[in-house]
Write a structure and sequence with these properties.
alpha+beta; Alpha-Beta Plaits; 2 domains; two-stranded antiparallel sheet; 10 strands; about 25% strand
């Protein structure tokens, strides 16, 4: 069974991914009971396990939800990307506690509440030319830096995450007033290398994470409190100055031998250019040019 989040191959009876810990089992939309993969009816309440509706199908393929101008760029450069090692920032976002929030509601009503959350997430990613590689029920996985190359991929990912939280918060305020349901999302990010194996005609990207890039990004999301954005030191190093952060210190991460330095993004920074970012870190001394200086 392939994990929908990190694409790790798991044993057929696995309930949780061995690599990133995401829940793999099929669940009933009405009572939340775990079901066998081939179930047609729930073994607890008898509700039919329905196939995805036309409304849901727009989230099943990147081709369906990727803006046309981005899709054209990806397909144009796809042959040059395949087999290439890329520096990227991986972003995971999901609706925290979606099963508990929506379990007592009709599936169609639940989708009416959930779909706008996914749309806000994807709009923020596409605004900064990221790629939504997968939509996983109540959340997304996005890549910045591949397949569209950007030197500032970590900065774009941070800006997308901040926009995501802001737009979902506005939507959540309306839902709270009309439905009485609290909606909050959590976001995790990490930067590192991936190897792009192939890009399908539907824009779905097949990749191999190098150095646990995707695994650690997924862990950041799972560790994030509702309404927060967590990023690793690797992501912050590439976006330092562009985003305001709160250091959370070294935190143990399941599957890794050493604690990981984790930061919470709190807002946009004052830096707008790479020169400004370098100035914040401090310029190196200008040495070894005595002869040139004397000539001026």
């Amino acid at each position: 069974m392939k994990c929908p989040r990190c694409e790790h191959e798991n044993p057929s009876k696995a309930k949780f991914c061995l690599e990133c810990g995401v829940h793999l089992a099929l669940t009933c939309a009405q009572c939340g009971a775990e079901l066998p993969a081939d179930a047609k009816f729930c073994l607890q309440c008898g509700r039919q396990v329905s196939a995805p509706s036309a409304e849901q199908s727009r989230f099943t393929s990147p081709e369906a939800y990727t803006p046309k101008h981005l899709a054209e760029k990806i397909l144009t450069s796809k042959s040059a990307l395949e087999g290439e090692r890329k520096q990227v920032t991986v972003l995971f976002a999901d609706l925290k506690g979606s099963m508990e929030l929506l379990a007592d509601r009709d599936p169609e009503e639940a989708r009416k509440l959930l779909d706008p959350v996914l749309e806000h997430m994807m709009e923020a990613v596409h605004r900064y030319e990221g790629t939504v590689n997968q939509v996983m029920g109540d959340g997304i996985m996005a890549l910045f830096g591949a397949p569209l190359a950007h030197e500032d991929h970590a900065v774009r990912a941070c800006y997308a995450a901040l926009r995501m939280q802001e737009s979902v918060k506005r939507y959540a305020e309306d839902v709270q007033r009309t439905e009485g349901i609290p909606i909050q999302i959590r976001i995790g990010m990490n930067s590192g290398e991936v190897v792009v194996r192939s890009i399908g005609s539907d824009l779905r990207m097949d990749y191999t994470a190098v150095g646990q890039t995707t695994h650690l990004a997924a862990r950041m999301e799972q560790m994030a409190m509702p309404g927060s954005i967590l990023l690793t030191a690797e992501a912050l190093r590439l976006a330092e100055g562009y985003v305001q952060v709160k250091p959370l210190g070294p935190i143990p991460v399941k599957g890794l031998p050493e604690p990981v330095e984790v930061y919470e993004a709190k807002g946009g920074g004052s830096v707008r250019t790479r020169l400004q970012a370098a100035a914040m870190r401090g310029f190196s001394r200008f040495v070894g040019r005595d002869a040139e200086v004397e000539q001026q």
